[in-house]
Amino acid sequence: MAPTNTAREGTPAGTVPEPRTSLGHLALHFRPGERALATRFFELLGTRVQEFPNQFSDEPLYVIAVDRDTPARADNIIYLFALKPAQLELEAVIADRLGLGTDDAHPALVTFLDQREKWPESYLHLGLHYSRLEDLEAAVTGLRAEIADNPEFGSRVQGLQVLKARGEEGDREIDERMAASGVFSRAEEYAYGRHGAQVHIRTDLFATGLSLFGSVVELDFVFTGPGRERNAFNSPIS
Questions:
Q1: Cβ atoms within 10 A of the Cβ of 117, count?
Q2: Interior CA angle at 45 toward 41 and 48, to 5°?
Q3: How many beta carbons lie within 10 A of that of residue 4, not counting itself?
Q4: What is the pLDDT confidence band of residue 11, given thresholds at 50, 70 and 90?
Q5: What angle do CA 230, 46, 204 make, to 5 degrees?
Q6: Bridge partner residues of 159 (DSSP)
Q7: What whole-number distance in Å separates Cα of residue 67 and Cα of residue 94?
Q8: In which band, very low, low, confident or very high, does the pLDDT at 180 lie, cut at 50, 70 and 90?
Q9: Other beta carbons less than 10 A from residue 90's beta carbon
Q10: Which of 81, 146, 155, 230 is close enough to 235 for a disulfide, judged by CB 3.0 to 4.6 Å?
Q11: How would residue 219 be classed by pLDDT, with cut points 50, 70 and 90?
Q12: Environment class of residue 230 by beta-carbon count within 10 Å: exposed (0-12), middle (13-18) or buried (19+)?
């Protein structure tokens, strides 16, 4: 069978064609009455948050443009709206059966939560990529300040894991940039793969699945240039 040609006809040699598809959107949910806390989280990450009426709920609908400079796109967005009563009722039953938050929690739940705390990227999560390391650093700095200054917000962030980047042997630029960073200089562990820096945030401000288990958000930056062609997002090697 002949290989499929994914390039568009008429594309000049050496140019990159417009993508046929892209990641459209992700739907997240906040608990009723907690929209201010949930939207504040995304504002701190540097996104653009827009509020709209929601015909199916008394709570508004939010459209979050991950790239705040291009808010009118039909892709690269997050929908954020209130959890439905049916899911809240189901989660209450699940939490009760598993003993969530009690001293008699089901062993499987204990094991699961322990693994997610130690290895958050192994859990269902949302990843945001920054094209500038300075923007990622600003997001982390803003989050830390909000956690310290706003106890209501801070109590809803259970963990913030900072993993510094490492390059190939002799790549002094990455080492020096990490050492000079106000966010990554104190990190003791490295991100998975080469050339990338990562931050994992555990929070229950919104749900990427069942809200009773909380969510994980990953912030990424990848160093590029000669010798840095491979990274965890195109060649998953350590």
A1: 13
A2: 90
A3: 5
A4: very low
A5: 90
A6: 202
A7: 36
A8: very high
A9: 13
A10: 230
A11: very high
A12: middle
Give the whole-angstrom CA distance, residue 143 versus residue 200.
Answer: 12
> Tokens in use for 124?
């269902």
Length reported for the chain: 238
Rounded Cα distance between 26 and 103, Å, is 35
Match 């089901």 to its residue by tokens.
106
C-alpha span between 118 and 112 (Å, rounded): 10
Sequence-distant (≥ 6) Cβ neighbours of residue 126 within 8 angstroms:
26, 28, 78, 208, 215, 216, 217, 218
Amino acid in the structure at residue 88: L
- What's the token pair of residue 90? 């189901």
Interacting residues of 26 by C-beta distance below 8 A, sequence separation 6+? 78, 79, 126, 208
| The model scores a pTM over 0.85 | yes
Q: Can you read off the two tokens belonging to residue 208?
A: 């990427």
pLDDT of 97-131, one tens digit each? 999 989 999 999 999 999 988 888 888 899 999 99
To which residue do tokens 């130690």 refer? 118
